[in-house]
Model the fold of this input.
Amino acid sequence: MASRSIDDVLAAHSDSLMALPGVVGTAIGLCDAERCIKVLVADTSAETRGRVPRRLEGYRVVVEVTGIIRPR
Done:
């Protein structure tokens, strides 16, 4: 069981996740009807996926390929 809320965990780790090459965003989402941390990546490379942890402080982390995100 996680000791901090998922919101607090994402806030604490968002900067380090965003610093990983290929990562374009972070979010909280639903994964199998449970809240999870989503790490948005620009491409499907195994190298990019391999840099992202599978769990953070007990919460599941899911990689989602979105491509490059640009402001409008």
The first helix runs from residue 6 to 18. The first strand starts at residue 23 and ends at 31. Strands lie at 23-31, 34-41, 55-56, 59-65. The two ends are 39 Å apart (CA to CA).
